């Protein structure tokens, strides 16, 4: 792999700690959600950070495939919901739901774009066969 960019973040204290990037752009405290036994403070957590990264990366992949197919995405957006839960064996596991809102496209075109974006998105490729990812196409209601 030819490296194009390296993002570097350091966390001290785990889920109840502090995360910062080497360039200082991210510099914030973390808090475990109340539903996981945390204090439920107004601080971010790893699942939110992963959701932010995945939705941005997948959105860029949608732009790439839309350009390839000469489709105007309009005012599109991607919402990533990252769930953490336990398997039957008691291990922690992630699942992701990607809701892609693409106004003005028909279902067939939208599904094609969503599926192709999932094939090329680096986050999708990294989680493939290890994390359940659900792709949802959201269209304008007529």
Task: Summarize the structure in words.
The longest helix has 23 residues. 30% of the residues lie in helices and 27% in strands. The radius of gyration is 17 Å and the shape is globular. It has 2 domains: 44 residues, N-terminal domain of TfIIb (Single Sheet), CATH 2.20.25.10; 93 residues, K homology (KH) domain (GMP Synthetase, Chain A, domain 3, 2-Layer Sandwich), CATH 3.30.300.20. Helix 1 crosses helix 2. By secondary structure, it is α+β, with helices and mostly antiparallel strands. The strands form 2 sheets. The protein has a 3-stranded antiparallel beta sheet with strand order 1-2-3, with no helix packed on it. The protein has a 3-stranded mixed beta sheet with strand order 4-5-6.
Please compute the radius of gyration using only Cα atoms. Answer: 17 Å
Give the CA-CA distance, first to last residue. Answer: 45 Å
Helices, by number, come to 3
- In CATH, what is the class of the largest domain? Alpha Beta
Based on CA inertia axes, which overall geometry fits? globular
CATH architecture field of the largest domain: 2-Layer Sandwich
Number of domains: 2
